[in-house]
Predict the structure.
Amino acid sequence: MGCSLSKSHNTKRLTKFINLTANTVDIRNVYAESQLEEHTSFVENLVKDILENVGKIEPALATDGLINRGSYYDRTKILHPDEYDYHPILGLSQYVTDVTNASDSHEDDGKRKIRINVNKLPYPLPSECLENINENDGEADLRTEELLNMLLNTISAVLKEMETRKSVKFYWSQNYRRSYKKEIDNVVIHGPSALLIRVGAPLGITDIDLCFCLKWKPHELGPSVHIIDRKNSWDIWLESVVELPNSDKYVLTPPHRKLFLTLKYLSNLTRLLGIVWQISSHVLKTLILNHQQKCRASSLGECLISIINELIVKPDDEHNPCDIPDDEYNCDEDFLYLFYSNLLIPNPIFPGEPQRLSPNDRIPMLISMVWIVQHIKLNRSNNWWNAFLSNNLIGVRRNRILQSLMDGLHEYYLLATSKSHGRYVKLEWQHDAKKSIVLIDCINPNYFDRPFRKV
Ligand SMILES: [Zn+2]
């Protein structure tokens, strides 16, 4: 595909495809505004009710304010309004006396220690929540483990009571059941810090993530809160900036927002096609933000190809003494070579805490992204686009072209989970006249020695 005329034609088609996908999957085009409003006010009232009752049962956990977070509120939710995120602000915040960096790394990693004045608390906290108590001034480190347990137990009691009193139905979230040990009735711990509640709402079953937080002085970038983070030790809190400056570094521009919706949908579809690992929407957003700062593209098609390159592991002489080659993709050619490697993605807010992307989260997404680019480039017909947008496994299975994406992902999955033997997965996709080849080297002998590296 060396001819520049056809190249620009392909980029135009790719851009059209991205715009079509973004418009189709945006919940504001799937549901009427009034439906979304009714559904959202149901969820918001329920959350308000839950938090009021938490404060009644356990006054030490009373909240003072609620911050709306997540894709519904930042207008990047796709398909269904089935996920809402909140930061309830604990009333304990007013007794915080100091917040300090928990590590001495020279780049900020967002990890903090929090001191609280125990003498001033109107409702005492269990001793397990406190550490390094200063008997003179009553100040102590606030630990997170017992606090999280208290929240879990209290919310569980609240939901039980609400279910008997009101016509509201909570569901056990099966997906998370096996991954976490601490789970009570209808509440599970989700991710590093949130408590997940699954409820029947007007437009269907909806997940509500409550990530309780403490509010202190703002971060230099804007208002921030401190949340529990189970990935770290129980005496560490994580700062989260809740209002970022309106600049290209932190906020997606409208066209890149469309690219984000498209990639979220593609990541969803990759999961629907049988890959249990999934690149998180948080990582996708960071990848696009990193791209955005250097974007010189004249169309979204070019941006997509640049994101593929962000996901590719490039050589790093310093950390690559074993001479492992880098991943390769040149969209003018029809060949992709991938290694089973980790990738570190720079974090624009906390440079000391880059996001880690494992090969099993990275490679299936790359397969899906490259599949799109290659099929748009080398198949004249658009007749697979509708099946692609159907978000329906049966629709995909019935479509011969999309079936090749499913087969490719499945082949990778079998080797990555050692259900089939070999070192390479070789995917071949037949187009109108040409073939694309993706070769994945799954057994990287130096994988475990190889450090994470920055893009
Ligand atoms: Zn761009």
Notes: The longest strand covers residues 83-90. The mean pLDDT is 88.
